[in-house]
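REVIEWER CHECKLIST
Item 1: Sequence provided? yes
Item 2: Single chain? yes
Item 3: Sequence as submitted:
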Amino acid sequence: MELVSGIEDVLAERSYALLLQVVTGHRQEIELYRHWWGESRIDGAFLVDLHYSDPRVPEIERLGMPVVVMGHPSESGSLSAVWSDDGEAVRETVAYLVALGHRRVARVAGLPELVHTAVRDQAFADAARAWPRRSPSTPTTPARRARGRRGGCSP
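Item 4: Structure as written out by the authors:
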């Protein structure tokens, strides 16, 4: 909610409003952009929850609609992107927990098709491999779930 609040604060200073619309999928979202942009109802958009080969990116590029992608620039095409280093945040968190003496750390992840989930998964796996091992029988054990990913590791 801090992200939405921050965006609203900046837009309000310029007499703009933030419109949020819940959609069921990318097709509906693309149609909504076409409709709103075609009728000059919006001045631009924020694109969130970026997927690999996200179909929204080329469609928005074709529309010529101003968009800021809230995600990794590797998948944002020619669109402007802002992002935080999700991988570094995960690595720092794991290092902190290890420094506190934690011996087991689990990660509950989001949807596997999201770019930021993959970045975080890789960073978690890398951090787990970098832990000094006290026992060779404590491997990293990621387990896929129907609604996301769950992984755990022990030093």
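Item 5: Key structural point noted by reviewer: The first strand starts at residue 45 and ends at 47.
Item 6: Recommendation: ____
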